[in-house]
User: Which sequence fits this backbone?
């Protein structure tokens, strides 16, 4: 790596962030380890939740990285390195998926497999627990094929992340900027299509199939939007950490920040739109095949979470981001972004945890449910900071840099 | 703002990299665009007369079809039980979808600072209004007693009757009427400065008076402009959620039911994407000839077509994603009705429509990945035509194939459109094109003042780049965006 040759003015100083990340990772993973010793089954459930939440940030980074290669724009060039660093975590996070694959194989030998379809008694005809609907899904939902798909997803994501990062760094080191930019744009075109398909199936596999009966065609798209929203919020927070870097002062006007604020507003609305759309369709149809999923998420106190999400995930950020002035103030945006990241966790909890816990209080009192996301996010942030410090904060040779200068300082 | 001089003069080949070809001045823009509606009636071009006549004849077909419908009732159509929604609703969804591209261009791209929208915005917005007019009439005609359509509006009445507020069909009424009125106001507000330009340029006293009245006393003062900009932004902000809500609610017309193939949670975003997809196909189909007839190649360039083709490809891929998820759901669900629906689409009596849709919307758009195809007008016209057919087939598949064979085999029946179904559909083109030809003849098709502003901004850009020492490298001078946008649509 060419860390030493990079001038200090270009590299963000993220030691503090890295230390915080490592701290959170140590505490979170230690608690998670304790959870494993005390109650392996609960550990596995919490781990799936934490993994599903954390990896969304990397997926969002990879998605936006490709989108900004395709659309251009000041926001994209400003956040490109943040996205690259987040996406580069994906190859490493394959390791984090191994416990999930082990859960699918029921390696720990739980009596009731967490993934219902992984229980041989459920899918074997003649067994008293036999469930024909789950059995119908077996060719697709089987531990082996689940693991195989996981490898495929991570292979796709890793190759995309790796190539985009490598070419981008080559561009920094003096490769023809037009040629490298074109190459990255072309890969991103195909990449977005592959990304959408693979992330959709990832969400269906890891998240949706926890309820082996239920299905919803918008589930994958909803997860992609969730990931996008969380990533935008993280990007805002990341900008507050790198803004001391000299080249940031030199090149970045307020416009890209304003644009990221607008995108965050758009994704907040998109999240609401998809969440409400799915609900209203299932509520109106009122078919026994689809309603149980929502019934579980409305009963025994979970309704409180629903009302909280309506206010906290839609109304609050929506009005907070509606005005023009607030979106041009990074400190204010960072406040909203922190809120969004916390609410993402609660939303993910509402999507995943009712499969494991009858009441939200029970879910909250289970310490591994907090330890898993904190520990994994700690690892994630530390890795992100590591990759951020390996490259210049802005891809200075990219033709898109012109967009930053054309916007002017307002 | 000083009169900007073109940096380079003389004709320039359209290499597909510029949104505004060089060689234009403020005056040339006002003249080229503004003089089209100001031509004296006796000098109206023959091409226009021919086109208008054909459109007008089709409009008469439309009126005859409606008159016969009013006399005989909906029994003249091919609808039956179980297929109670037929071509009327297919055409309704098809037309309104086409309208959505106009609002996307006029409102969403304005909010995203995409300067390239300036030259196609007015035309696309007009297309929206006319398409919504065609669409809005279908559900009313389908009512059986269309003259009682006002019963759809909730008002206190002696029958003590209210629409069912839980029904998406009732929401449709509000969504579409709001959408149509906001789009109309947005379009008219955008026309004000241009009406004033026409008023000032008109030599005929009657034209001067007519445009003068329409301009509502526009004098171009700073205060006028300030309010104008404010109103445009607010209306754009209003239109954006409206355009999404209209097609989402239309998708809910289907999705809130229990019919297999209708109760699909991906429907709202998938319908919106499909609408934009079909709409851009129509914009391309209309723009390609009009810009040649009126010599607007400098304003509507290959770069515009390139970007529109990219939007078409992107939204088309979202639609393909929707098809894919539907197939996946049928295979994954374990529900015999879902499985049968897929079987019926692939093997049933209307399977041709499903295969046609897959070809038109999924296969035919793939060449758009290549720049050479995106920059070829003939290729774009062919693909856009195929897409327009494909999106019509999509609604046919959703409506007819699902209804033909619902849950009970004993109530299955085929749907065969009658000559009146077709005449009403063909006639609706008469309404659309009559309005469109009138628009081309009497209003400026391209926003004159926005083009002048765009010209100014582009020149500023050029000057800035040349000052910055990039010099005349040719390759990426005037790459297009007046102000680099946020999430660009391409």
Assistant:
């Amino acid at each position: 790596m060419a860390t030493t040759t990079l001038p200090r003015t270009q590299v963000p100083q993220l030691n503090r962030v890295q230390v915080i990340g490592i701290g959170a990772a140590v505490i979170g993973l230690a608690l998670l380890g304790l959870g494993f010793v005390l109650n392996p089954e609960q550990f596995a459930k919490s781990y799936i939740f934490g993994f599903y939440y954390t990896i969304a940030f990397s997926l969002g980074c990879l998605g936006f990285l490709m989108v900004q290669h395709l659309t251009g724009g000041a926001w994209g060039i400003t956040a490109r390195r943040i996205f690259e660093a987040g996406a580069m975590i994906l190859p490493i996070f394959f390791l984090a998926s191994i416990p999930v694959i082990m859960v699918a194989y029921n390696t720990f030998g739980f009596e009731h497999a967490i993934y219902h379809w992984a229980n041989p008694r459920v899918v074997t005809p003649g067994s008293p627990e036999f469930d024909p609907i789950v059995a119908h899904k077996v060719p697709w939902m089987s531990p082996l094929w689940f693991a195989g798909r996981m490898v495929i997803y991570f292979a796709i994501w890793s190759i995309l992340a790796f190539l985009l990062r490598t070419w981008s760094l080559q561009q920094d080191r003096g490769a023809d900027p037009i040629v490298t930019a074109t190459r990255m744009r072309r890969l991103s075109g195909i990449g977005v299509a592959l990304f959408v398909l693979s992330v959709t199936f990832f969400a269906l596999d890891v998240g949706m199939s926890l309820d082996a009966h239920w299905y919803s065609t918008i589930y994958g798209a909803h997860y992609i939007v969730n990931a996008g929203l969380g990533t935008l919020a993280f990007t805002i927070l990341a900008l507050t950490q790198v803004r001391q870097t000299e080249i940031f002062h030199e090149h970045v006007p307020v416009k890209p920040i304003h644009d990221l604020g607008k995108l965050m507003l758009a994704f907040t609305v998109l999240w609401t739109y998809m969440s409400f759309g799915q609900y209203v369709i299932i509520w109106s149809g009122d078919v026994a095949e689809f309603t149980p999923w929502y019934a579980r998420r409305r009963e025994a106190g979970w309704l409180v979470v629903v009302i909280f999400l309506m206010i906290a995930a839609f109304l609050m950020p929506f009005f907070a981001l509606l005005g023009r002035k607030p979106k041009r103030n990074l400190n204010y945006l960072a406040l909203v972004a922190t809120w969004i990241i916390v609410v993402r966790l609660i939303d993910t909890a509402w999507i995943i945890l009712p499969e494991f816990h009858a009441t939200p209080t029970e879910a909250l009192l289970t310490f591994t449910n907090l330890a898993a996301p904190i520990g994994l996010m700690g690892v994630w942030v530390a890795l992100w900071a590591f990759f951020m410090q390996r490259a210049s904060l802005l891809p200075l040779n990219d033709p898109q840099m012109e967009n930053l200068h054309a916007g002017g300082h307002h | 703002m000083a009169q900007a001089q073109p940096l380079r003069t003389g004709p320039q080949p359209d290499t597909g990299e510029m949104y505004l070809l060089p060689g234009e001045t403020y005056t040339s823009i006002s003249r080229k665009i503004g003089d089209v509606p100001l031509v004296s009636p006796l000098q109206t071009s023959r091409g226009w007369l021919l086109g208008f006549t054909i459109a007008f004849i089709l409009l008469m077909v439309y009126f005859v079809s409606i008159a016969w419908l009013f006399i005989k009732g909906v029994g003249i159509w091919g609808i039956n039980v179980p297929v109670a929604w037929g071509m009327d609703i297919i055409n309704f969804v098809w037309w309104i979808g086409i309208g959505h591209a106009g609002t996307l261009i006029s409102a969403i791209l304005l909010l995203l600072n995409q300067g390239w929208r300036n030259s196609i915005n007015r035309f696309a917005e007009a297309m929206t209004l006319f398409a919504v007019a065609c669409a809005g009439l279908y559900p009313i005609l389908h009512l059986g007693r269309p003259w009682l359509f006002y019963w759809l509006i909730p008002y206190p009445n002696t029958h003590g009757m209210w629409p069912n507020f839980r029904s998406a069909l009732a929401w449709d009424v509000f969504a579409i009427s709001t959408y149509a009125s906001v789009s109309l106001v947005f379009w008219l507000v955008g026309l004000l400065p241009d009406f004033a330009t026409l008023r000032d340029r008109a030599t005929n006293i009657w034209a001067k008076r007519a445009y003068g009245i329409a301009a509502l006393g526009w004098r171009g003062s700073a205060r006028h402009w300030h309010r104008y900009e404010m109103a445009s932004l607010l209306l754009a902000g209003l239109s954006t959620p409206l355009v999404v809500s209209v097609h989402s609610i239309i998708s809910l017309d289907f999705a809130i039911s229990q019919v297999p193939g209708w109760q699909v949670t991906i429907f709202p975003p998938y319908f919106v994407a499909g609408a934009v997809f079909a709409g851009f196909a129509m914009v391309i189909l209309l723009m390609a000839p009009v810009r040649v007839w009126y010599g607007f190649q400098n304003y509507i360039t290959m770069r515009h077509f390139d970007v529109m083709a990219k939007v078409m490809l992107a939204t088309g891929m979202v639609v393909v994603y929707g098809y894919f998820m539907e197939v996946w759901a049928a295979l994954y669900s374990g529900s015999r009705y879902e499985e049968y629906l897929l079987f019926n689409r692939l093997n049933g009596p209307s399977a041709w429509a499903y295969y046609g849709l897959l070809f038109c919307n999924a296969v035919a758009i793939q060449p758009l990945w290549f720049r050479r195809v995106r920059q070829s007008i003939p290729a774009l016209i062919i693909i856009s035509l195929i897409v327009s057919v494909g999106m019509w087939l999509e609604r046919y598949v959703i409506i007819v194939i699902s209804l033909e064979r619902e849950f009970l085999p004993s109530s299955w029946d085929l749907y065969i459109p009658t000559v009146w179904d077709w005449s009403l559909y063909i006639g609706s083109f008469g309404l659309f094109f009559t309005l469109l030809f009138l628009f081309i003849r009497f209003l400026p098709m391209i926003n004159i003042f926005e083009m002048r502003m765009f010209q100014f901004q582009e020149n500023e850009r050029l000057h800035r780049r040349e000052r910055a020492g990039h010099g005349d490298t040719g390759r990426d001078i005037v790459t297009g965006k007046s102000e680099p946008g946020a999430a660009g649509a391409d």
Chain A has a mean pLDDT of 88. Residues 12-405 of chain A form one domain. Chain A touches chain B through 49 residues (CB under 8 Å).
